[in-house]
Design a protein that fits this description.
mainly alpha; two-stranded antiparallel sheet; 58% helix; 4% strand
Length: 90
């Protein structure tokens, strides 16, 4: 499940971030598109928190997307490279 989620996560999240950013920046405040952009941004924030809570409650290590080694990552920390293979974490 984790590998399937990693493959489509960025293809969904990045366009949503772009749309939300454009609608919040370009539209007048309190217009329907502005509200939709803010709603998208809030939903992405809640999704991030839900993912972190999922991994905390599961209590397992996360696999590296490249080498597959299990990594014990602390929640709400930014890690950029895998300590085993050195490639960027997804």
């Amino acid at each position: 499940m984790c590998t399937k989620y990693r493959t489509w996560r960025y293809s969904v999240i990045l366009p949503l971030v772009g749309v939300a950013w454009l609608w919040v920046r370009e539209e007048p405040e309190l217009s329907p598109k502005w509200k939709a952009g803010v709603s998208i941004a809030l939903c992405l924030g809640v999704a991030y928190l839900a993912e972190e809570i999922f991994w905390m409650t599961k209590g397992q290590e996360r696999p590296c997307g490249h080498c597959g080694k299990k990594l014990r990552l602390k929640s709400f920390r930014v890690h950029t490279n895998c300590p085993h293979c050195g490639l960027p974490l997804e």
